[in-house]
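Letters spell out the chain; the tokens describe the backbone. To illustrate:

===
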Amino acid sequence: MRRIAMASMTGTVIEFYDFFIYGTAAALVFNKVFFPELGAAAGTALALATFGVAFVARPFGSILFGHFGDRLGRKGTLVTTLLMMGLSTLAIGLLPTAGTIGVAAPILLVVLRIVQGLAVGGEWAGATLLTAENSPGKARGRYALFPQLGPSVAFSLASTTFLITALTMSPEAFQSWGWRVPFIGSVVLVGVGLYVRLKLEETAAFKEKAAGPVSTSLPIADVFRTRTRAVLLGAGSTTAVFAFFYIGVTYLTTYGTAELGLARTTVLAMGIIGGLVFAATTILGAIASDRIGRRTMVVIGNALSVVGGLVAFPILDVGTPLAFGIGISVVLGVVGFAYGPIGAQLPELFPTRYRYTGAGIAYNLAGVLGGGVIPLVAAALVPAYGSFAIGLVLAGVSLLSLGCAIALPRTDADSLADQDALVAPAVA
């Protein structure tokens, strides 16, 4: 289990690292190299919009790779998503700028971003199933937290990479070629991830399912015929997690430099701290879910997010490096309590034969609203209503997630087997 857990975390760290370095680059430099004719404000807004394009692609990725993951197996699907993410990230690092090839540059950037979205849309569910379907029930939350650590570790790693480039080269060099280093260098991480994943075996639950009767219906059809409520409530309960996290990893990078006037190196350094705080609360939330229940822990996390949304921006607006560090730690740290348990909770809502598809769709639908829409809304709110308006939006999204979490059924140590038993007569 330790080997499986580390393999699942390694893969998600690499996938989300590739995903996040795009967000950091979009906030810092893409407005200048891909949208130079639009000016700073409009260029930044459009650069962040290209970041959001991937969230539209993510649900389609969960359907596509969920289908093959449920039909052919988890392992091969996860190898494919890692390759897609790695190759598209390398291509972004090698992409000519608008000054070289004109309007083709931003068009190709969007296409590659869509490929990234498809890949990461298929990644999360498969990685969590590696641990959830192999782990002993009473420790499922503890083992399922490892892929959940991927985003926090990846964000800290991405911030570290950009911080090193910022400290070792001039702003002109960074804008000219330095921003490409994290994208091209990710090839090394992808190679490590492929080596680890190719050595994995298929999950025990999928092997057992593959040995039994084969369903002729499509996994996506099964999900919405029998588990529509679970998908919608699962997505709703997770939306606040995405909203807070992507405000923290994308919007606050721009907010700290452009609105608060902080140095880029300061913002990146504080981002590393925020990512580590998020990792710590993710661990606490996942472990606690084995003791007090997944739903209870997700409810607690979303309730804390209501408060976190209201206090974060008054702290950030103090404008000092320390205040920024505390504020981003609040934004990222508060949602870890809910994010940690969902690595076990969402898979526990679906039976094995369409678990990859169901859990992936629920997770990535939450990403569309929380991660794709909310950061764009935030950028528009500040000029008109001030930063506290973002806090009100975050608190409102948290209340929505809180209500959905309360409405979800309880899941427990035996729920994976229980879900399979419920659909066994239909399969037969």
